[in-house]
């Protein structure tokens, strides 16, 4: 067995990483081995990185079976269904942070884009549970990708309870992600995380996503709750990523998130 195959097997033996898509483990593991680390150290470093980019956001108690029961029970009523979705979004710390602004977030940001027929949600976490707040067309296609196989299985079943035609898969959005043509792509609070794995991830994603509009956002607080000048640093990073592009850009500042709506086809100035 090669070192990388041994590393992948060792990392996926642990309960915490068993359901992380193999390609993600392989990508991070290859980078750690390329630094000249011994196998045992590379396994530890891979687990550390996986925690930073994924595990740290999970609150524990991810009971997908019970959640689907709750959602099915609530699905007859709009208000109860939304309540169940909001409660479940609380289990992913990044998605949870958006709960306090959820009523204004999508209505504000997407107001001039409707109707939206297709959405690509990259490194989605539990954000697809916000579909009832997005005002998408009935039958719109929603593609959701993250690294956890069990999470995306749950999301696929969840989307059957909504009015969208949902597809979800576990993949590494940096190395091997399908990028279907869509009206709107969401890359919410994920660029800093993906750039911890590959510094070119942000540039690569912005160049390869095939969407008329892209909603890119950044956290304004760290997971520990401290500010550390994050909004200014992330805005500077975003400006670097879009420098030289002939795209229209709108900026939105919310209590918990800084968002930029890019249009590759529309001049916002004329709206
Ligand atoms: C900061 S959270 C953002 C979650 C979601 N976009 C939101 O804002 O609610 C980052 C997400 O990226 C996912 N992730 C990290 N690395 C990834 C990769 N290489 N490919 C796909 N998803 C990844 C994590 O599992 C986590 O759910």
The major sheet is characterized as: 7 strands, mixed
User: Radius of gyration from the CA trace?
Assistant: 19 Å
Molecular shape: globular
- Sheet with most strands: strand arrangement: 3-2-1-4-5-7-6
Give the N-to-C terminal Cα separation.
59 Å
Name the beta content range.
Answer: 15-25%
Order of helices and strands: HHHHHHHEEHEEHHEHEE
In short:
With 271 residues, this protein is α/β, with parallel strands linked by helices. 42% of the residues lie in helices and 17% in strands. The mean pLDDT is 94.
Task: Explain the overall architecture.
This protein has a 7-stranded mixed β-sheet. The model has no long low-confidence stretch (mean pLDDT 94). It has 11 helices and 7 strands. The protein has helices spanning 3-13, 22-34, 39-53, 64-74, 78-89, 93-97, 102-109, 149-160, 191-197, 201-208, 230-242; strands at residues 118-122, 141-146, 165-170, 182-188, 211-219, 248-253, 257-263. The radius of gyration is 19 Å and the shape is globular. The structure holds S-adenosylmethionine. Residues 24, 53-54, 57, 94-95, 123-125, 127, 145-147, 172-174, 188-190, 193-194, 197 line the site of S-adenosylmethionine.
Question: What attributes does this structure have?
Answer:
271 residues, alpha/beta, globular, binds S-adenosylmethionine
Secondary-structure map:
Layout: H1 3-13, H2 22-34, H3 39-53, H4 64-74, H5 78-89, H6 93-97, H7 102-109, E1 118-122, E2 141-146, H8 149-160, E3 165-170, E4 182-188, H9 191-197, H10 201-208, E5 211-219, H11 230-242, E6 248-253, E7 257-263
Parallel strand pairs: 1-2, 1-4, 2-3, 4-5
Antiparallel strand pairs: 5-7, 6-7
Helix pairs in contact: 1-2, 1-3, 2-3, 4-5, 4-8
The protein binds S-adenosylmethionine.
């Amino acid at each position: 067995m090669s070192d990388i195959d041994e590393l992948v097997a060792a990392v996926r033996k642990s309960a915490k990483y068993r359901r992380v898509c193999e390609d993600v483990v392989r990508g991070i593991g290859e980078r750690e081995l390329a630094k000249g680390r011994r196998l045992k150290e590379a396994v530890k470093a891979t687990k550390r990185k996986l925690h930073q980019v994924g595990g740290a956001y999970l609150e524990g108690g991810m009971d997908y079976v019970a959640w689907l029961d709750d959602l099915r029970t609530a699905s007859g009523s709009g208000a109860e269904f939304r309540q169940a979705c909001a409660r479940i979004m609380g289990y992913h710390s990044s998605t949870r942070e958006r709960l306090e602004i959820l009523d204004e977030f999508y209505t504000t940001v997407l107001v001039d884009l409707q109707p939206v027929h297709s959405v690509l949600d990259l490194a989605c976490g539990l954000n697809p549970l916000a579909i009832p707040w997005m005002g998408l067309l009935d039958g719109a296609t929603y593609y959701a990708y993250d690294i956890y196989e069990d999470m995306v299985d749950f999301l696929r079943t969840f989307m059957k309870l909504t009015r969208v035609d949902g597809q979800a898969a576990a993949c590494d959005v940096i190395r091997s992600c399908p990028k279907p043509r869509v009206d709107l792509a969401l890359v919410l609070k994920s660029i800093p995380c993906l750039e911890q794995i590959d510094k070119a991830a942000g540039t690569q994603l912005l160049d390869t996503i095939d969407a008329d509009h892209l909603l890119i956002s950044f956290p304004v607080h760290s997971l520990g709750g401290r500010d550390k000048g994050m909004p200014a640093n992330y805005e500077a990073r975003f400006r670097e990523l879009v420098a030289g592009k002939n795209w229209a850009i709108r900026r939105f500042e919310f209590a918990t998130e800084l968002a930029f709506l890019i249009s590759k086809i529309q001049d916002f100035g004329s709206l």
